[in-house]
Amino acid sequence: MNTKKHDLISALKYAFPITIPVLIGYIFLGMAYGILMKAKGLDTSLAVFLSLFAYCGSMQYTAINYLFLAPFNPLYALVLTLMVNSRVAFYGISMASKYKSIGILKPFLIFSLSDETFSIVCSHNIPENINKKAFYFFVSFMNYCYWNIGTLLGCLIGSFITFNTKGLDFVLTALFVVIFTEQWLESKDHRGALIGLLCSIPILIFKTNIFIILAMILIFLAISIIYKYNEDGKIYE
Fold first, then answer.
1. Among 17, 38, 222, 232, which is 20 to 30 Å from 214 by CA?
2. What does the alpha-carbon distance between residue 180 and residue 178 come to, in Å, rounded to a whole number?
3. Residue 150 in 3-state DSSP?
4. What is the pLDDT of residue 32?
C-alpha cells in the first residue's frame, strides 16, 4: 500500500467516529426536512436538489414557508437568504488559515462548511500522523452525505406516511443546543460562548431574523478585541 493511500485510509478511519454525532443529527434533520417538504406538497426532486446544490440546512427549512409557499419576491428571497446564512461569512474568516493551502479541495470545503463541520474542524486537535487536508475533506464530505441521505429518506417516508408535522422543524434548534452544550463542557474558556449568548439577546427579545446580522457584528467585534489583547492569540483553550 503506497503512502498516499495509507494516509487517506488513516484520515478516514480517524474522521468517521468524530462525525457520528453529526451522522445521527443530520439523518434525523434531513429526514424532518424531507418530510416537511412532502407535507407541504413540494416535490422530492426540489428537496434533493436543494440539499445537493444549496446545502444550507437552516435556510432550507426557512425556504419552505417563506419562499416556496409565499408570493414570489426575488428581493425578499435575496435579503432573507443573506440574513439567515450571514453567519457562514464569520466561519469563513476563522477558517481562512486552515484552508489556505488546501489546494484543489478548497472549493468543495468552502461549499460544504456547515455549522457542525465548522465545529469539528475548528475545535479538533488533529494528531501529527493524520493528514490534515484529508481529515478536513472527509469530515466535510461525510457530513454532506449524511444530510443528503437524510433528505432522501425523509422524502420517501413523507410520500407514504401522513402525520401532523407541527413542531418538526424544532429539531434544527435542538441540534444547535446539543452542539453548544458539548462545546461548553469540552472547553475550559467559556468567553466565546458567553459573548455569543449576550450578543444574541436582541434576537430572543424581538424574535426577528433582522437582528442576526447585528448579533454577528457584535460577536465579531467582541472576539476581535479579546483576540487582540490575549497574549497567546487564542480565545479557546
1. 232
2. 5
3. helix
4. 87
Residue type, 139: V
Cα 121 from Cα 226, distance rounded (Å): 22
Burial 156-194 (b: 16+ CB within 10 A, else e): eebeeeeeeeeebbebbeebeeebeeebeeeeeeeebee
The answer for residues whose C-beta is within 8 angstroms of residue 107's C-beta and 6 or more apart is none
pTM equals 0.75
- For residue 30, what is its C-alpha cell? 434531513
In the numeric block, which cell numbers belong to residue 2?
A: 503506497
What is the tens place of the pLDDT at every residue in 50-93?
A: 999 999 888 888 888 778 888 888 887 887 787 778 778 777 87
Of 58, 37, 27, whose CA–CA distance to 153 is shortest?
A: 27
Grid cell of 24 as nine digits: 445521527
